[in-house]
Amino acid sequence: MAEPVRDGWTYAKAGVDRALVGRSLERLLGAVTYRPPPSHGRLLDLPGHYAGLVRIGRETIAVTTDTVGTKTLLAEQVGSWEEVGEDLVAVNANDLAAIGARPSVLVDCISSSQPSPEVFDAIGRGLDRGLRAAGMALIGGETAVVPEVVRGYDLGGTAVGFFPRGRRPVTGSGITPGDVVIGVPSSGVHANGFTLVRRLLSAGAIDLGRPRPGGNGAVGLELLRASRIYTNVSEALAGRPETQAFAHISGGGVRNLVRLHPKVAFVLDRWPKPSGLFAWLGELGGIEAQELYQTFNMGIGFVVVSRPVHIAQTLRRLARAGAPDATIVGRIERGRGVRLPHLGLAYEGYAA
Amino acid sequence: MAEPVRDGWTYAKAGVDRALVGRSLERLLGAVTYRPPPSHGRLLDLPGHYAGLVRIGRETIAVTTDTVGTKTLLAEQVGSWEEVGEDLVAVNANDLAAIGARPSVLVDCISSSQPSPEVFDAIGRGLDRGLRAAGMALIGGETAVVPEVVRGYDLGGTAVGFFPRGRRPVTGSGITPGDVVIGVPSSGVHANGFTLVRRLLSAGAIDLGRPRPGGNGAVGLELLRASRIYTNVSEALAGRPETQAFAHISGGGVRNLVRLHPKVAFVLDRWPKPSGLFAWLGELGGIEAQELYQTFNMGIGFVVVSRPVHIAQTLRRLARAGAPDATIVGRIERGRGVRLPHLGLAYEGYAA
Prior knowledge:
Two copies of one chain form a homodimer.
Chain A: H1 18-31, E1 42-44, E2 52-56, E3 59-67, H2 71-78, H3 82-97, E4 102-112, H4 117-134, E5 137-145, E6 153-162, E7 180-185, H5 194-203, H6 219-224, H7 231-237, E8 243-248, E9 265-267, H8 276-285, H9 289-292, E10 300-306, H10 311-320, E11 327-333, E12 337-340, E13 345-347
Parallel strand pairs in A: 4-5, 9-12
Antiparallel strand pairs in A: 1-2, 2-3, 3-6, 4-6, 7-10, 7-11, 8-10, 9-11, 12-13
Helix pairs in contact in A: 3-4, 3-7
């Protein structure tokens, strides 16, 4: 077993100061005061949610944008690019899934110092795989060559989705104590926390080509594994009366749940023990559980909040939609924030 | 007058190999073969156009994505960020304008090594100004902190537009010999060609705080000036029977016109003499006219192709829409490609 190389690694120590990001974003949003006339579309206000919504004519359109982050640097080290191509679809499709929007189209934005045809080919194959899983079409993109701004590749994208006739956005506003929290497992680390992951790998002088203790296959590839796409999960349950909310467990970990409803407590007392990969990362950096659960998905990539009625039927429905591994991970109680009582963890707000 | 510091600068010599970008993009697009079922939206094929179109329910949605490119590095040097914030709206709004779509919403994507509240505040003020000009709402965004990928800031965004009841996309498919080409002046270099611009400034040891020969005000600020937004121009003419096409003169310069129709010739014999800024850049780098006109907008940022009938009325309409400076810059003839006969320039395709 690898020895902890340093005690108490946090995301901030790895170079990402969440408070500074929050303050900066507040300034930007504070300066943007303009609201266009309704002839340019009617905005539906859902502050803090995964996607923005606008009513255009008779349709409600959902728009979300996200990047693969520093996972591209691991792709470069390992020399494998399909996974991050697929991730580029996943990070956006899963944000649409979290609001119950059906994915329609994606545009990609690839900034690089110098594009390579081989890398672009692999990214394309990954995109194609992701698009198939999400039922989404690539309808445009931008290839920016910005040698003095970007080292390697920065992969971003924007997805547009919609609500089929009769379906409303799944917002979480109806969450009530007594509701059940269902978790759908992740495929690994997905595409969050890689600034920290890479620091740990480097500080621990980890050989990416070898398995970690207890792992199968090269740990570089295990970490690179593409994010699971939850479109089918969302499509199977969105619009059903018992479905109250979805959450995409991305950057921010379990804190993402707080975004769904500020005035209930998410008690995750049955959150499954995460796979050995997360435990290994934790040991490698001597990372506190409090930090781990607000940085990584810890084994659950997507969450459904559902009324307790017909819960067996809901799980069967999830199994048919490709998620037979979904399980009950907790419940809604009176109170606030997110708790994992068996681990002694409690989080108040979305931001750390 | 500054002496030419080097002969024959081209965009490729400045570090951007357009052919390599083209080859890479071809590989990516070749690998993406999936087309989703119509229940996820119906794609409208408009290869090579400025925005992707999808039919969702009863609405046709236009989506485009673009970045400010290396202009952010000049913003950093000059210490002024409002302009590139406004550019982020402009590059996307103008792509929507070029297809006659009404802007609705924008999402921004700011990747940085470390965000600064002051920079984000200025970017926000610029965004707000751009959004007002385009009639667009900011409904989301991503703030990626990727210290090992990005130096400074990379500013990208995605805009979503639509076609008001009764308006169709303005595609150029009906362009016919005899049509008139109208040009609407740019506000300067806009947000293209800055990798080359910065090389020239650095090779010429130009003091950004002083005026260029013949210029007013610091040349750094002159180069940084925000892109003009052509939403009002597009809104004034889209849907009118005499309007055949719009073009946004961005990266690729006048070659952008070839995207509109492959089987006519765009004869730009009345293209106005560009402002001293472009002449100065050309002299600074000893840049051939052939290269200048396929890299910069050369004084015209947006083009309208119109039937020759009622042309005076069209120009009056443009004046009322905020473009009293629009003029006739050429006409459509039989043939192919783009020609500026008074300069001895001819371009065949879109890509160099």
